[in-house]
Amino acid sequence: MCRPKPPEDSTPEEEARVQNRQAAFLRKNDFRRIGHTRFFGYSPNPEHPSRLLQAEGDADRPENKFVPTNPVPADRDDFMRTYPLHFAIIHLPKQNVASVIDAYHTQDPCSIHKQDHNGFTPLYVAAASANAPALKALLELGAASDLNNHVNKDGMVPLERLEDTMRTTRELAELLMHKWEGYSRNELKVQLILKREMGISVNGQTDEEYLQKRKWGCTCGECVQGWLSPRMRFRLETEAALSKDNMTVLAPQFRRGQPLSEDNPGLCLPLQFDYLPLHLRQKVYKTFYNGYVTIFENLYLLLDETEVVPSVPHLRTLCKGDRDVNFYLKKGGKFEYALESMVEGAKSQSCLGDSMFEEIWESEDDTDDEYRKLPRCANDLEFDLVKRMIGVPLKGPVLPPEMLSAAVDSERGPSSLTLKMLVDMISGVYEDEEDEEEEENYSDLLNPHYAELAAGRKQARSEARRAAAAEAYAKSQAGGSSAPGPDLAFQKLLSFLPEGGVRAPIN
């Protein structure tokens, strides 16, 4: 699999030209586009459907198919005036959006279907920004005909756009913060509305059932607590069984009073000990070893004979009173080491590793069909999510929470960061001017006094903001107009309407 990529700093024209040339080369060598993404894949199987597709029949990039017909706004005010509903959905407080949509629809019923310069309808923007009030208002006024409209720059329908934004938010949170708080209720509510309007089955779930089961990404409806899928549980159970069996086989290496050690070439510690700190591996006595094995035995029993999720509290209960486990814990061992070993071992044998598990359990010849009968789920390979949920700390650099707290806010829905990512993808016109920062001049990095210069610029910006805030406050106290904000934008949008255009009361 690969993705055509132009050189850095290419102009849009150069980027398109280079990508088209790279795509032609890939197609010549039997690569075909994966759906409508930017990625190309190759199958070594000559009978694979992709190998039967002629190069000229391969899908093109959505942006290559879309031909814009509406004007590109010159600035924020022009955007507000030209595409008022798009602006309102993105920038206004949610309690005001329905009134604006209703007012413009009263004046011009076609306004709820109007596409912007990227081909995005108001319904598309409402879905992309997970704006439930806007979505409901548009659907009540008859915008459902746009639910399957994919004639836009992205080549997506509104539901696809929403789910793409949800995935992006999740991936950013997991990559940069190693902490994802689940899909927000607001995102899931919008997803549920769209699915029902499109006739997509939700298996008779109530709103609350859907929100609870989908919070952690479950798509099979059978995940325990919404995140531990049946197939993932089977993987973990298999790994726990293998671990305890392998460790038991190696137990006879011990000699009376003689520890196992990584430094002793004549003795061998099982791979499960790789997840213990180095100082605990220096000298491993049999009692300590047996305590670690006992934890894996109880992990297997927990996964095989109960419906609960593996966790430190459950292991502590199962191992209570065991002499070997108590010795293991007293010497510095933790239940978390066994949990991490189990999850990482399962991951290493999955298709994210050497695919050994798939070769055994997906084969119709070598094993029974116990695993193959289990429902598939989006959580089947979410090993990092499992580690977090069972209490295993994730490792690696993590950004300060204040830098991305908004991106993973599980109650407020799409954050300023999420929306900024969205608006960057829809040409930058939708950016909030109040969030703009002075661009960094990276040539200044060569200046030996860079730190002082940067600090000075930062202080100057802070002082300018304080002065602007003080001026706005003084004007408001004197009865003058304040700095532009949601309320002012709301009134400005309504001012574009002819007198009497507002049908419903404005709150």
From TrEMBL:
Which residue ranges contain the repeat ANK?
Answer: 118-150
| Entry-linked SUPFAM superfamilies | Ankyrin repeat (SSF48403)
Q: Does the keyword Glycosyltransferase apply?
A: no
What Gene3D superfamilies does its record include? Ankyrin repeat-containing domain (1.25.40.20)
Record keywords, A-Z: ANK repeat
Q: Which InterPro entries match?
A: Ankyrin_rpt, Ankyrin_rpt-contain_sf
Q: Where in this protein does the record put region Disordered?
A: 38-73
Q: What protein name is recorded for this chain?
A: Unplaced genomic scaffold K443scaffold_90, whole genome shotgun sequence
What is the species of this protein? Laccaria amethystina LaAM-08-1
